[in-house]
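Incident log, entry 3
Record: Global nitrogen regulator (223 residues)
Problem: checksum mismatch between cached and fresh output.
Input:
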Amino acid sequence: MVVMQDRPLAAVFRQISNPSFPPVVETFERGKTIFFPGDPAERVYFLLKGAVKLSRVYEAGEEITVALLRENSVFGVLSLITGNRSDRFYHAVAFTPVELLSAPIDQVEQALKDNPEFAMLMLRGLSSRILQTEMMIETLAHRDMGSRLVSFLLILCRDFGVPGAEGITIDLKLSHQAIAEAIGSTRVTVTRLLGDLRQEKMISIHKKKITVHNPVALSHQFT
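Fresh output:
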């Protein structure tokens, strides 16, 4: 199989399985679990549509979001990185309705060995994931919930933002509860903080989609 660097990763991902075990397309409604920590790592996932939240659940019951994946992201690859067959480390949940493409981990591993160009495409996808995880850690380091919210909105602008005349619109329908879960807050607090930002003309909300009118000004206000 020949893989060109400019080919979409989704097209490549569809071809790595053999005819006996073709890639599987699955859909999940918002809030549905894709896999739990401790589940056997049997498949690698490619996100075709929507957004997926990866989080860690700690003994005290606290759940920390480590990444919010966008379309064309690869996840469920820890075993490939460590070289050992390990169980799932994260809790993967559909943050929005999602469509996933998955393939057996053995076949992905063989494709990585056989084709360096495919390995490079995967590495690029993982690099983006790692960068976002670092940004989420920085976001959760803020003790002030207002700063957490602003930091989170700026990450969403970077990864899901669509430029327009009014600013950057985050192309996700976000409930206050979903935002609260992502930043470790409560729905009541998030509702109040979003209301403050709307009063200050920093954001507007239409049909659950948030538009940040001036991301630079917003970041400066809370630096």
